[in-house]
Every structure is written in structure tokens, then in C-alpha cells.
Amino acid sequence: MLFNVLKAFAFLCVTSQFITPLQVSAEQSDILFPKRLAGAPPEATQRRVQPIVEPSKRPDKERFFVGTVVTTGFSGTYENLPPMRLRPPEDELAWRQKAGEYRFIDLDGASATLTALARTGRVYDGSELTDKSYDTLAARDIGQVFGLAFDEEDKPGLYLTATSVFGLQIVGADQNGDLREDRLRNGKPDAEWMNGQWGGIEGAGPGSIYKLDGETGQISLFANVRLNERDNTGAALGNIAYNEAHQQLFVSDLETGMVHRFDLDGKDLEQFDHGATGRPNALDEDAREPVLFDPKTKLDIEAVRFDPFDPDSWNIAVPERRVWGVTVHGGRLFYAVADGPEIWSVGIDKETGAFLEDARWELRLDSKRPDFDISDIVFSPDGQMIVAQRPEADLDFDYETMTETQQAEVLRYSREAPEDDPDTPSVWYAEPQLQPVGFDYKNRGGLGGLAIGPGYDERGRFDWRNCHGNLWTTGEDLRQNDDLKKPLMLGGQLDVDGLQVVPVLYPAVDNMPPWSAFFHDYAEPLDPEMKEQGRVGDVEVLGCRGGSSRAPALAGAPKTLPPQAELPPNTTGDPRFWCTKGFFQAGVCLCALFPDKCFGGEDPKPACATVVAELICDPATQTYVLQASLTDVSGAPLDTVKLEDPSGTITSLPTSTAYPGAISVPLNGLTSGQTGQVNICAFDAAQQETGEPFSCCNTTIPFQIPGESCGEGPVE
């Protein structure tokens, strides 16, 4: 396959049945019941099974930067074994450990992580990003959470919603004298929520929305979602979305089926009831019978019918009114209904931000697993609606599984063009594109989280020209594939449960399997032997909008970041590269050699080098070879070119050669569909030998191995 002419950028180089029951002594009882229930009246006889959780002491400092990616997930567990003198024989102990009798939620485990991923250093090549999280939000503060949303304040706030997707854990008083609270498989009169299920902040519970202040780094209880003074009893919340036009938040309640509208002061402004008003008020052909919420229903952890591992006992709203995924687009709130599943929308008043009475059916999901809820929705820059399913819950007492095996899809729906076809039921094409997630499970390894964030340029840097360039998805076993094990191992570990990021406009059909992607692992579990299938939740990415709080992650970036529409054309935001054109325009400037000609927003100057590159097949070795011709157009004394492979996968890369001239790079060890790049720096060798900073004309040649094996036919 001939590669198009590439002209790149120039820059300066730089049971308790196994334990014999014991009598609980008064001393043991004092240990077991240290405090009365919080807020209990003096006459109350019930005591706490667990100690009161103390929230974290967090440092006072800004928390968000350019490229911040937030991921939610199960915080993990720890093993709280009885004292040695009370332990059973070794064989019994081993069984009980495996069964999870002494596994409890890790209060200091990560329920959400913050990672700065503004720079990758390479093009999308299917490899793992190994950047460590710079902050974690612990279960002792926020409990278990799923949904995420940023506001658009100058110092942005992050909002997180309490969730039941990782299970509902309860404990009861010690019945066998092992000085440990008992994990319960069913409700009973003394049952309590396990510490770490909900946040340790006073007042937190199943209906909680938490806020991380971007300026101070402090966590607070933003609001509790209630309906007519009725608390959420345990089913918890779905997802959350920010409405920039009216500075408000929309959050779905999995127990009542309501969508609540909050202002940024935490005031519940109103509720939208899809079951009662959305269904019957749709257009005639889409109108449905109303399905009402019964406020008398509740989840009762003290009732034996409550099963922590059976969502059917959790008082989750019936499918006809259960709303999960929400997003704002085109002046409407798009929301996902479990029945179908389907996507609906409702208008938002332009003046007040209130819900209108114009609910509209959008589409019914065309999925291989219609029993999976849609937990997240985003829109691409070209108007495609992208939806993500969350696998059905499959919960075990030992925390090993939280979802069914990977079959959840991410699907892309396009609007009918050039206009809506009146003979079709929807404005959307009925058949979606499958967005591949992961290398295995038929590319259906999603876990229900989606986000649109800034793209990366050809050097793997956050690109301010492309504020909606990347699609982020959550998933697991993302880099597992027995048939591709060898090339995948070159790009990092195979066991990645966390994030996949791809160029959002890259055709999904051309990225299967997703070699044009990066992957990032969620927080490591405390016990590496535990799989914890389904432990990852949602993802959110800080975008381009906002103020100075987002600038520090990019050296040399402007102190304030203007909205995308106000950016000068063909700029990246880094002053050293303001003269360059976009990647597909193949422009190269003289920034490195003549900086004075590049600053001030002037038009690009002539290139310092041109590159003509092609990918050919060597039939003798049955290996693809990257061949390139380098021509100097700078007039500067450049005589040497240095070659680099940032991925480290090309085994036969020459280190240097004469310039101008030609290079030939056999692409050994790469497999079909794999992408990569070769970085080229042309410089004056004599100037380099002085040890002083020297000018460098830099060129990047990206490539992708064709789908067919070398020698099987011509390269297109």
C-alpha cells in the first residue's frame, strides 16, 4: 500500500458453619458494638455492628489538569480474619477465605481515579498507557459510585453518583464469637450496610451525589436525590449529565425511574417522570400506557426477602420506567429506558432549563443482548449517537464476579441523511455500527462507560484543535487475544481492565480489532489473585473548555484556554507549534530553525523538509518495508537524520543515516492492522557535537500494516 505523501512538523528537539459457636463475653461485646447508631434516640437499644467511618483528610490544592481522565470502579476488598486463637483448622480456614466470609470492602481502595493522560508520546498503536493515577477517591469518602460529570466552571467541579452495580453488601452482629461482624446473604433485623457501600460523609446514602471541588480538592455531599421527602432505599442512582447552557445537572434514579434536575447549589428543581408523562405524551404512534411509581415500595435490608446478590429484590424500577444513561444534546435531554432498551428524548426550555412536554421516542436498540441496560450516551462531533450497555449483574459472595461474561456492546447510530425518511419509524438509521471494545469477546468487552474528550495529535499530545477527538470506553480484558498474544505483549500487559481510547471519527469497521487505540488499566486490586469481573464503571474526561485550572498540564500553554470556536485556525495551543498545519494537511514549518518566523499567529512558512513515504512488500522476506525519501528545503546545513520508534516494536530500525537521502525500515514483528510510527530528526552533526542545543527538523511517518499478509497480493 502506497502511503500518501507525508510532510510532518518541525520543532526544537526536546458460613459460619465451620466455626464452633462461642459465647460472646461482655468484653467481646464492647469490641463488637463500640457505638450506638448515629442519630439514634437515647431509648434505642440497637447498637452499631461496625465502627463509624472517618472521612479522609485531603490536601487543599487544585485537582484537575489538561488531560484529566476520571474512572469509577469497585474499590476492592480486604481480608479481616479473626484473631489467631479463634481461627478454625487450616483446611477449613482456606475454604472460608475462598468463600469470602471475611472479605470486606476496602475503605481505602479506589472508587474513582484521576489520571493525567495529556501526552502519550506516540500515535495510536494498540499499546497500554502506563501513567499512574495522581489522585484516588476512596470508598471511605464516596462509597461505591458509577456516574460522572464535570461542570464548566472556571475551577471545575466533578460530580459522582452512588451506585448498586457492584452489589449491595450488608453485615450483621457477630453470631459465632469470632469478634468480626458477620457478612449476610439475606436481610435480618440487625442488618447494616457494610462500611464502604455508601460514603462516610454524614448524611450519605443510596441517593447521594458527591462533589469533588476542583480548586480545593475537597469532597462533599452535593445532594441526596429524594422524591417527595422519600429517600432512595438502596437501588441507588444511574448516571449524571451536565447542561452547560443552564448550568444544571440531570441525574437518573434507578429506584423511582425519575430524572432529577439540580442546580449547582444542590437544589432539586424538578423531576421528569418518563413512566407517567413521557410514555403517554409521546407522538401518537409512539404513545404508550403510563407506568406509575408506587412510593410505598422500598428496599428493606432487615427483611429476609432482601438478597444482596439478587437485583430483583432491590426495588429497582420496572423496565418500562427505569432510566439509566442520560446526556444533553441539541437542546434536549436524551435518556435510556430499560424496556427495549430504547432511547428517548425530552426538550429543555431555552429560557428556564425546565423540562418541556414533548417526550419523543428515538430508537430501539438493535443489540445481540437486549437484556442489557444502556448506562451511558454520548454524541460524536459529526452527530452520531453512541450508546454503551452495562452487562447484566452476576454477583457472587466472594466478589469474584459482578457482571456476566463480556458481551456488552457499544453501538453508533447515524441520523438519516440527507433528511429524515418519512417511511421509517425514527430519524436514526435502524442498524448501528458496532464500536469495537477490546481484542477479545468479539470486540464486545464494554462495561457501560463512555466519554468524548480531546484528541491526540501526531506526536501523542493533547490537541486543542480537536476538543472532541477521542472516544473513551470502559471495559475489561481489553488486550487479551490468544491469536494476537505475541504482538500485543510488545505493547504492554494483556490483562487490562479499565479504559480504551480511539479517535472518535475513525471508522469503526476499519478498527476491528482496535489496533488504532490506547488502553489504560484501572487501579490494581489489593489482592492480585482476585479477578473481580465487572469492577470498572464509568469514565469522564476534562475537555477544552474552562479556565486556568486546566492549563498546567501543558508546558508553555496559554494561561487561559479559549473555547474551541475562538482558537486560531491550525493551532495546537502549544506556542512552539502554532505555525503547523494539521496532520492530514501535511504541513511542516520552520519553527525549530527560525522561531521568529513562527510565532504571533502568522501563516505557516515553507517546510524545512518534505517526505515521500510508501509501504511495500518484500516478497523475499514476506515483510512489509517502510521506504521514505527525505528532501531538504530549509537551506540550513543539515546532514544527518536520527530515527526513533517510540513504541520500541520495530526490531530492525537504523539509528541514523545521511540527510537528505532515503531510508528503508523493515517492519519485522508487526501483525495485520497494527499501527506505528517512525520519528525522524534532521540536524547538523557538527552542531550536535558541540554539546550545545541544536536545531532539528522533525518529521513523523505514521503507518498501518495492511489487513492481508505480505505476499498474498498487491498493497493498495
Extended strand count: 39
CATH hierarchy class name of the largest domain: Mainly Beta
Structural class: mainly beta
Look at the structure and give the mean pLDDT.
Answer: 81
How would you explain this protein's 3D organization?
With 716 residues, this protein is mainly beta. It folds into two domains: 33-78 and 88-550, Neuraminidase; 588-704, Sandwich (Immunoglobulin-like). Helix content is 5%, strand content 29%. It is built from six helices and 39 strands. The strands form eleven sheets. Strands 5-31-30-29-28 form a five-stranded mixed sheet, with no helix packed on it. The chain is globular and about 80 Å long. The N and C termini lie close together (4 Å). 47% of the residues are buried. Mean pLDDT is 81; it is low at 1-46 and 546-605.
Q: What's the structural blueprint in terms of helices and strands?
A:
Blueprint: H1 26-32, E1 68-73, E2 77-79, H2 90-99, E3 103-105, E4 110-116, E5 127-129, E6 135-138, H3 139-142, E7 145-150, E8 157-162, E9 170-172, E10 182-183, E11 192-193, E12 208-213, E13 219-224, E14 226-227, E15 230-231, E16 237-243, E17 248-253, E18 258-263, E19 268-273, H4 274-281, E20 323-329, E21 332-337, E22 342-347, E23 360-364, E24 373-379, E25 385-390, E26 410-413, E27 433-434, E28 446-453, E29 470-475, H5 485-489, E30 498-503, E31 518-521, E32 536-541, E33 609-618, E34 623-632, E35 640-644, E36 656-658, E37 661-666, E38 675-683, H6 685-689, E39 697-704
Question: Outline of this structure?
Answer:
The protein is mainly beta. The radius of gyration is 28 Å and the shape is globular.
